[in-house]
Write a sequence for this structure.
DNA sequence: CAGTATCCACAATGATACTG
DNA sequence: CAGTATCATTGTGGATACTG
């Protein structure tokens, strides 16, 4: 394969996952299936609107599966698909970098 | 101040790297130091403005070092710092996922 | 419970022109 | 060559109210 394609695949990933919440949602879904309001609780700060939009985007990308149980009131479960589970290493590496970054900046602030 | 939950470090990373171009720029800088116009060529589609802004952001985050050689005309080199090189695994994993994603979608399109 | 529907603010990005 | 400056457009996210 051409070299030019490899660079663009980073862009490709970021286009899908680059929002503020998407990868974060995925990181919670790695624990197992979750309901809508579970995710609202897990991700304090996200609005209903963004939660819906990002879940839809992940669903459209085939990374998340939405299951509706026709109880009353309805129960909806979100779960990673097999494709979605491919994000595990992505989440891990982002988490690790984020932790390091926060630690570094904490040290920087402390040193001032 | 936000809570220091593990999940939030994913958010932390994405806040810094979540733009359209930043991680892509880093991926090219992993090859070695590059000049401004090298990067413009490497990343077709990026505007001068965004290239400047994102390089500044990465510089401010301590991930990229900017070196000016006082020749005429001036030569400016951008290079990853040691901290910036910590992004290598991030880039790798994003590249890998992006490649897989493009391949999957190509197959999907072909099957239509 | 799990959403939609609106409306709005602001950030991100782009286009174009100009400069030391 | 390596940028700035300015303006316009698009995208992202938030607030609030409402619904089956």
């Amino acid at each position: 394969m051409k070299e030019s394609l490899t660079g663009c695949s980073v862009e490709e990933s970021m286009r899908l996952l680059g929002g503020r919440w998407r990868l974060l949602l995925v990181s919670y879904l790695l624990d197992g299936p979750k309901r809508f309001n579970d995710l609202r609780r897990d991700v304090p700060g996200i609005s209903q609107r963004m939660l819906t939009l990002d879940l839809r985007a992940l669903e459209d990308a085939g990374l998340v599966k939405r299951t509706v149980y026709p109880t009353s009131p309805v129960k909806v479960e979100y779960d990673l698909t097999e494709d979605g589970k491919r994000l595990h290493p992505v989440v891990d590496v982002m988490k690790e970098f984020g932790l390091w970054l926060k630690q570094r900046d904490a040290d920087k602030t402390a040193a001032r």
User: Anything to note?
Assistant: Residues 19-21, 46-47, 49-50, 53, 73-74 of chain A lie near DNA strand D (CB under 10 Å from a C1'). The radius of gyration of chain A is 17 Å. The beta strands of chain A are 34-35, 64-69, 75-80. The helical segments of chain A are 3-17, 22-29, 36-42, 48-60, 88-111.
